[in-house]
Amino acid sequence: MKKIAVLCKDGFEEIEALTPVDVLRRANVHVDLVGMDDLKVTSSHQITIQMDCVFNDQIKEYDGIVIPGGLPGATNLRDDARVIEIVQQFNQEHKLIAAICAGPIVLAKAGILKDKICTCSPGFETQLTGANYQEAIVQKDDHIITGKGPAAALEFGYTILESLGYDSSNLRQGMQYEYLMNVEAHKE
User: Fold this and answer.
1) Mean of the pLDDT values across residues 130-137?
2) Which positions fall inside the DJ-1/PfpI domain (predicted)?
3) Is the domain covering 3-185 a CATH 3.20.20.30 domain?
């Protein structure tokens, strides 16, 4: 079974952290919310969430990591040397790395976005030095997935799931995502 870690520090965006967890757990993927410093982490909207575990050396056993946005959560992750080190290690090992909203600034600081196609929340693209920034809801370039922001969280979660080798079509339909996309496509 694949194992994914969602890294959280105070100020994380809760939709961007919890939606991929929800999508992946519905598909029976092992996902842990990992507090970088504590088992309780407070989001950017002052919601305190109980983590599954606190960051430790076992992080190296995971198949991928997810970095949510939110402020100051994304900058807190970017400024944590442990996060930069694990992102670089996962990149060298070609493991899944996913970041959404402001989260790609962590990948930029780790130096793994050079010539990679990516997206992020508007305004943060200036911090993605060397990246091939694209306007898109979600971008995937090899083992790196990036998402635009909270509204992209479901597509971001489905893309992570598919990158792990799972078919997301039943989940998309069961969660009414296909219905939503069909309604949006037919609005006048």
Assistant:
1) 96
2) 2-162
3) no
The pLDDT of residue 36:
98
Token readout for 96 is 């899944």
Answer yes or no: pTM beyond 0.70. yes
Structure confidence at residue 184 (pLDDT):
67
In this structure, what token pair is assigned to residue 121? 């929340």
- The radius of gyration of the chain from alpha carbons, rounded to an integer in Å, stands at 15
Helices 14-26 and 153-163, interaxial angle, to 10°? 40
- The CA-atom distances, in angstroms, between 56 and each of 7, 76, 106, 179, 184 are 11, 17, 19, 41, 43
Q: What is the pLDDT of residue 186?
A: 67
3-class SS letters over 63-83: CEEEECCCCCHHHHHHCCHHH
Run of H or E residues at 173: helix 169-174
CB 22 within 8 A of CB 160: no
Q: From the centroid of its chain, how far is CA 24? A: 12
